[in-house]
Each structure stands twice: as C-alpha cells, then as structure tokens.
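I am still learning, so would you mind making up any protein sequence you like and the tokens describing how it folds?
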Amino acid sequence: MCYTCGCKLPYEDHGDPANIVEEDLKRAGQTDTIKKAGVKTAKENLIELIRLQMDEDGLQRPRTDYNK
C-alpha cells in the first residue's frame, strides 16, 4: 500500500516521502544490522514487532523494548 495509507500500492508514495514504500523496505533489508538479509527479512521483522504491539494493544503507544 504505500505501507502507510491503505491504498494497496506498495510502490506509490503519493508525492509524500514520509509514506513507507517498497523501496524503503528494500533499503532496510540491506543494512548491516540485519546482515544484508534482504527485504523479506526486513518485512518479517517489521511484522513480528507490529504483532507484539498488537498483542498488547500497543500500536498507539508502543513500549521501548519488546525483547524477552
């Protein structure tokens, strides 16, 4: 979707660079932090954290640390 607005167009930023698009996730997948594991790993990590936040009703105000 631009991953933020709900349009379901993953490459469309609607002229606003603040919208998260596929290219942002591709770049995130090439960071040293995740050892350049790729976009799939970056997305999986993003989904995991969002699920943890959802489980605690914390999307609006997430904790600073979700490590066990």
About this structure: The radius of gyration is 13 Å. The chain has a mean pLDDT of 96.
